[in-house]
Amino acid sequence: MPGIRSFISNNPRLGWTVALGIFVIAVAVIAIQLKNSGPPDSIARRSEDVTLRCTETGNEWTMNRGQFERALMTYQGELTPEGMFPSKFADGRPVAILVDRSDWQETVERINAAKEAYGGQRRGTGG
């Protein structure tokens, strides 16, 4: 490696250019992460569309994340990673998942935790 060190010592502009490039990439990655790390119940996140896939037929469709998560919250019982969303391509059987598997896993875990914390309690009718 002394060859690279001496080459950069003899060409400091190249070293600074490489350092600047790495810095720009790091800033871009951080900015993207911060942009996508809003709270899961934010209006912006609930307003986005998600793509679902039927695990039986492979057909895909999009829907609003807020409507999608509301449907999962009202589903009786615990959600599973294998598929729990009713698929319009499988006669309404709960065999659909999000195309983004990591998003699906996070959503299942978050909604199951919320259901467990909620414990099936109902809000009072106020009267």
Task: Describe this protein's structure.
- This protein has 127 residues and is of the alpha+beta class.
- It has two domains: 2-35; 43-118, no CATH class.
- The protein is built from five helices and four strands.
- The protein has a four-stranded antiparallel sheet.
- The mean pLDDT is 83.
Topology record:
Layout: H1 2-10, H2 12-35, H3 43-47, E1 49-54, E2 60-64, H4 65-74, E3 85-86, E4 94-98, H5 101-118
Antiparallel strand pairs: 1-2, 1-4, 3-4
Provide a quick synopsis of the model.
The chain has helices at 2-10, 12-35, 43-47, 65-74, 101-118, and strands at residues 49-54, 60-64, 85-86, 94-98. The chain is of the alpha+beta class and 127 residues long.
* Termini separation: 78 Å
Indicate the mean pLDDT. 83
Biggest sheet layout: 4 strands, antiparallel
Radius of gyration: 23 Å
Strand order of the largest sheet: 2-1-4-3
Low-confidence stretches: none
Give the structural class: alpha+beta
- How many helix segments? 5
Shape: elongated
Number of domains: 2
